[in-house]
Design goal:
Rossmann fold, alpha/beta, Dihydrodipicolinate Reductase, domain 2, homotetramer, 6-stranded parallel β-sheet, NAD (chains A, B, C, D), NAD(P)-bd_dom_sf (chains A, B, C, D)
């Protein structure tokens, strides 16, 4: 049984609280939030003690592991505190607003020797994980071409976007991680192209809403990632990997399986309307993998350094967007 | 808030307990089982008071509704007791081992005026319900031909089958109900054909493991239902309805969406290995529909009499299996 | 090189003329029709000598094989004439209007020793043939359940239907043959149910437009065939075979592969509008198989007797439609 | 009736001869080849007079239109000769080995006023054309992102590749044309990345076998094209266009529709083994469109200048491959 403290009781904190409560190997003992009433709302439904005193969440006599689901600017501080207390930590991404800060905190945490994981939940998507298993077992030979689509149904609020760091750092970063994880290689260079097609306001702060990044792996394999903020047809996520002897695809997902035939065609259930329902099961699966690592004393399924590397690719991609050149990734 | 007593803490009782605990409009107050330790196992996880005193479950001062998930031979007694206490009741099917007993208890309960529902959970399958909605909105015109497949992955234990009443009463009965529900018509006649292809032991008690039933609706529309106890490829459930202007299909369901392309073909995720994972969400949806009916004082979404009618079709189908003749259904 | 005479220059004769002309092992030497101008229309496009003198088509010094594509009531006479002349013969189905006449002519032709084939073209459908290959190679184990759908887009003219012999003899007979061919077994009994849902005029001559037949094979395996004269969504043909270890399906066919995603669903290319485009390639494939049999001196890929057996099943099915009983098939 | 001369009786010439013979509005009168025996082989099967005298093919008293299917280095000369003779011309691509030569001949032909078409046959693929129709009718709103895959099953002979001009000029050029044609816009810039993953010999002459090109349209819409010389799973061609309100896809094509279900997954018919069977119907469709333009005196469905523009994009893409920069396309 692993005793957990949850840091942060906002939207994503509530998702994690529900998964912590449902995991049979987890005891949710503390929920911390600067706003005590928010913490209380979660402990009322999922158990544990609410607190607005941060030190309650980092008390090694009561807690084995900390789940950091607070706002991005406080991640680094909470990671350090977990390291100081010798507690295992599962942390939402990104680890820090800038790559420099993130690098600093990762080195700090690594020095402490605690088990730490960045919550790259998409690695735990059932279909993506199945795709990787097929590749790892040699099902398609050596990887030669990867395509990933990351397409949200609607533009997030412009106020959110303004401070997000840009589409490649905020949205595509998940897929930069998937790329490394699936291929087992660190991209050497990246070329990115982007446009503002949805809301001209993005131009004001140098962001784009539709972009394409092409990465080159050390083996020469190529990776294409398209990122779209607003589709007209729901949430669209898809991975396709071509190897020397075959191809494997984690297909678009629909929440239903109904088809209607008429003289004008066949109409089938569309894609998920939003990203959350599609992605929801991955949070519980990521948590379960972290808990298993703790119980079996095996390495973190997503070391903090993986978060750094994904951020490094995002930096190079963002630079390429400006320069119109292929940029080398500096890890 | 509806206060519920759960009667029966076996496998299916545990499923219902979890759904009762998760439904925000339900307060699970009592779990009754003849074996108190089984009741306790559920209340420990899902809340409520365990008891082996049946009268605790039918106390109107504490309970608004009873969920009957006990063994089949006690359903009738529990239904009567709920009627006597004036409690709403949601009951597992079948209502009683024989049609005669079922008819008697349904009339008793109807006379009492309580809200009562038979747990025809497949009506609440997201895809089947979507299919019905399309039909009800005129999407395919008048129904002309219906096909339903009910195919389990493996033969249930022969000891279970021996007392099950036969494949048509035990397995196909769910689809007899779906047929009535989808078409909004009561079949007038049925012809059934069956074989023993999996285990010759079934011949000893007159059962079959593979069968086909053809029903005729009052409109002349035809319905084919195939029932298979053991496929070699997982759990296979599928409904197709052809109307005068189109066709709608609730397709086979896979738990994943991965496809692998090679020179020998395209391999995609197969069907669910078992029936339970496929059908699981329907239990919570059926419960939610019952609770909504209670809260909005609207009619039962599956009156007990619907259970009777499905049983009547099963009787006629079973008779046809023996006679080799098309048999009229007597309601 | 096989020298062919074509008997009959109507719609289906023109289809065969085109295939004869395109087959590199065939020399189309004569086209016979009672109406010389129709014969001429074909020889103008596809070569050969037009004639309205039947004896030209059965002259062994000029002709090796005869393709009988004349009207049904003359098939038997042309078959006998081919037998008398010692010519190989490929004949459109049915062999004769009644089972008795058909039996007589088959015995006559068999006695002559010529190579004769009934044009069961659906056996040569690429997908159906692939399905059979998988079954024959043991891909699904022993056959347990077969489903076939035969659904035309629109009701043929009532004048045609009046003399067609009824839906089971006219339409379903192709699938009775497919059933025998796929399973490699002769059905022992059949139960059929039918309705008039499209045009009440059919009631006047005892026909139906929507029907279901259930056949039992000697192994106990069950076969369902639905036959529909008028769908609202195009031409729909589909075969599914379940065995003891798996299932194989020759799926519905679309003439295109376009999908459109929107917020209301995914719209894909519908089915073929008519039967002819869907079935067209099977005629050339059937001819090619016949020619190969001639050239390699191997047995007919569809002996005339197979035509008889399919007709015998149709007779029993038609009887069942009237009696409401399962009927034994008499071969 | 349009009288055609066919120039070139090699592999692709034979394909065109068959289509010319089958087109009811075409009279194939002359087949020219420097090797008279090759011309004869075609006229023997498809009609017309064989010749090795080029002037027979450009005689306006006998010929209305010329189909140029000769070797690439003679295309320009044949185009000029058709222009001089005032004959309509349908020409295989590319129009000339270099963009400069191609520009020169296009201007020469345009000045002559003849109807001229470059044989961009993929525009006439049934599914691609359907996709374009949906877009043109506003089915997905304004184009925002296009993805095209061009993937051959096996590496062409290295001797062919050595003189092909490189993957982007030789293979991707078809898709540069499709991009312009679908979007109705001329790309302003292109960035390309490529690798040698299949045969190191390509490095010797600066070619790649796996590449990705990203184009930017004047509207800001982005286009990704991946080009692969050797898949391990057959011929793979696919177009996907996302617009402001939806997405449309011309899907991968299989030559069959069989699915086999087992406990380990669902195996379906794979892709076409080679490009030719997949693309074959487009040649006849392109010819038909040309003939229709002649008969109805409407503009060429693919003016020669379109060939130039596609070549211009290929030049810029090839330059980007070397420079690592986004390159502007110069038309």
């Amino acid at each position: 049984m692993q005793r957990f403290a949850l840091i942060g009781a906002g939207f994503i904190g509530a998702v994690h609280a529900e998964n912590l409560a449902a995991n049979p190997s987890v005891d949710l003992v503390v929920v911390y939030d600067v706003d005590l009433s928010r913490a209380r709302a979660l402990t009322g439904r999922f158990g544990g003690r609410p607190t607005d005193d941060e030190s309650d969440a980092f008390d090694p006599s009561e807690v084995d592991a900390v789940f950091v689901a607070s706002s991005t600017d406080t991640h680094a501080a909470h990671l350090r505190r977990a390291a100081d207390a010798g507690l295992a930590v599962l942390c939402e991404k990104p680890l820090a607003p800038t790559l420099a800060e993130a690098t600093e905190v990762v080195e700090y945490v690594e020095a402490s020797g605690i088990v730490a994981m960045v919550d790259f939940n998409r690695r735990f998507d059932r279909d993506h994980a199945h795709l990787k298993r097929i590749i790892d077992e040699g099902g398609i030979g050596a990887i030669e071409l990867v395509q990933m689509s990351s397409r949200g149904p609607s533009l997030p609020p412009v106020d959110y976007l303004r401070v997000s760091g840009g589409q490649l750092r905020d949205q595509t970063v998940h897929f930069f991680d998937l790329c490394r994880w699936i291929a087992g290689q660190d991209p050497v260079s990246v070329a990115a192209t982007g446009s503002v097609l949805v809301d001209p306001a993005l131009t004001g702060f140098g962001d784009v809403d539709t972009s394409v990044a092409t990465l080159t792996l050390p083996s020469g394999a190529l990776v294409q990632i398209d990122s779209v903020r607003r589709t007209g047809y729901g949430y669209d996520e898809r991975i396709e990997v071509m190897g020397s002897s075959g191809l494997v695809e984690s297909r678009r997902q629909s929440p239903g399986n109904v088809s209607q035939y008429s003289s004008t065609g066949i109409v089938s259930t569309g894609l998920y309307a939003g990203w959350f329902e599609r992605v929801r099961p991955t949070y519980a699966a990521a948590l379960a993998a972290f808990v298993t690592a703790l119980e079996t004393r095996t390495p973190s399924p997503a070391p903090l350094r993986d978060g750094l590397r994904a951020q490094a690719i995002a930096e190079a991609a963002t630079a390429s967007l400006g320069s119109g050149r292929t940029e080398t990734v500096v890890y």
